[in-house]
Amino acid sequence: MTFSVSRVQWEQAAPLLKIIRERVFVCERRIPKQVEFDRRDHHATHILVCDDYSQEPIATGRIFSTGEISRIAVIPSFRKHKVDKLILNALLIIAKEHNLNEVFIYSPLDAVQHFRDNNFIPSGAVFMEAGMPKQRVVCSLEDITDTKVYLSH
Description:
Aminopeptidase, seven-stranded mixed sheet
């Protein structure tokens, strides 16, 4: 399988990004819509991944100029293809373009080990958000050298 990874702005791609996030966060994880779709989307750079065969939008993630990465979502049937790694690499490329020193994620507690496996380290105490335990994980961009993904505009 092959995928197209694109940098998009909310204003142009909101309908496609919403399809993915509603399916993953609202339906699957039961996060209230008003929590999932915050006013911050307009201030982020988003990644949209589409399946090259079906042209279906299958994954997304966003990054802010502060280095905060969030809303990484992959449609369940594509998770076995490690599409989340494509998203993370694309977001790290954007962070480097913005000359950031580090990025961080408020990770669900059950995903902290996944991010540890991708050069992030836990930072701070566990806290609750939208009824879900989370922990901040941080990654120094100096430690990242393997960001192999073609990022189209």
